[in-house]
User: Which sequence fits this backbone?
């Protein structure tokens, strides 16, 4: 079976400007020193950015007015400019299309639930994993996002919720790296962003690591590396089928790391972190929804992970021009029943935003085509 090309090194469409969130403490102090400012200003700026969610130096009123312009230019360049917001689900879901400094487009989705507020963020502009049923994969990879571009998606959403820009005032509680891109293909920047998202203020945004999910199509060595970072975030593996023959086509990275290798890495993650692993499975009509595949999935997951795994079945959100569609509800219910029969937790994910092109990459594709 012919495999699709894989792209792991992002082409540099345009290097993002250096941002405060891209620098460690020493680099921040050094940058301020070059501007003639004392090192205590680094902590002051951190409290403004992470604690008060201010990204514009003109709002940082404890910074001398005469210093704001040069600090803004050096450390707080505008990273994300909203192109448009699109809402649905009675206003509880809002998708934002962002334009970066070089014209690159990316997306994030903010979802309000009764018990939490979740933000789905992007780690790359586009994606090089080439999964044929994914709008982002169909569009290819533009480039990796910088740490600052990742973190600023979160800061912007947290501020929007706090200020009531998106319904009643609220607090951002959950982050999922399930937007555009393969997070583990942008490993160092994603890990740096996760540390800033989860560190308490003023070092970070203070979101619990247990409320952060990092998704991957199965870069096995990077899964093991992530396990050793001491972050204890939730790992989500986009498996989509339990057999190598079909997965070689649905998830071309399987040509490098087979299902068994991915599940071995997932077991290492569970053993090392003590966290349950999430398995993502987009259910596609007549492609991967057969009863025997449900049985194989349940068997393999139970053997590899026991009770430390949960399957999220995702009704496929068809992309324009796609030959595939979501499985019928009776097929979906039977698939869940069979996986559960093997002692594996399995539920169907709540789908949001279908009428606003909420599948990753759809809004960006529409903007580009338009």
Assistant:
């Amino acid at each position: 079976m012919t495999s699709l090309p894989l792209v792991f090194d992002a082409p540099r469409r345009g290097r993002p400007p250096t941002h405060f969130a891209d620098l460690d403490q020493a680099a921040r102090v050094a940058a301020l020193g070059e501007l003639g400012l004392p090192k205590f200003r680094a902590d002051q700026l951190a409290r403004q950015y992470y604690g008060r969610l201010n990204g514009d130096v003109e709002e940082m009123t404890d910074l001398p007015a005469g210093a704001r312009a040069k600090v803004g230019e050096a450390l707080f360049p505008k990273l994300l400019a909203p192109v448009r917001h699109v809402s649905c689900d009675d206003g509880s879901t809002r998708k934002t299309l962002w334009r970066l400094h070089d014209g690159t487009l990316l997306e994030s989705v903010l979802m309000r639930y009764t018990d939490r507020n979740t933000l789905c963020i992007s780690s790359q502009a586009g994606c090089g994993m080439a999964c044929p049923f994914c709008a982002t994969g169909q569009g290819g990879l533009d480039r990796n996002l910088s740490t600052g571009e990742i973190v600023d998606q979160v800061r912007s959403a947290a501020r929007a919720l706090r200020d009531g820009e998106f319904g009643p005032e609220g607090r951002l509680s959950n982050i999922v790296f399930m937007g555009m891109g393969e997070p583990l293909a942008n490993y160092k920047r994603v890990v740096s962003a996760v540390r800033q998202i989860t560190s308490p203020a003023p070092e970070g945004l203070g979101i619990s690591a247990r409320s952060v999910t990092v998704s991957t199509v199965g870069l096995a060595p990077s899964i093991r590396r992530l396990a050793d970072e001491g972050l204890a975030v939730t790992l989500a593996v986009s498996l989509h089928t339990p057999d190598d023959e079909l997965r070689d086509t649905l998830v071309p990275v399987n040509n490098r790391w087979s299902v068994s290798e991915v599940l071995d890495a997932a077991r290492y993650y569970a053993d090392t972190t003590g966290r349950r692993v999430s398995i993502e499975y987009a259910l596609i009509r007549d492609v991967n929804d057969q009863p025997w595949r449900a049985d194989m999935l349940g068997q393999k997951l139970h053997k590899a992970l026991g009770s430390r795994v949960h399957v999220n079945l995702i009704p496929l959100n068809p992309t324009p021009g796609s030959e595939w569609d979501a499985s019928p509800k009776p097929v979906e219910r039977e698939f869940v029943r069979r996986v559960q029969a093997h002692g594996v937790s399995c539920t169907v994910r709540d789908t949001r935003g279908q009428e606003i092109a909420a599948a990753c990459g759809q809004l960006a594709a529409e903007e580009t085509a338009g």
User: Anything to note?
Assistant: Confidence is low (pLDDT under 50) at residues 1-12.
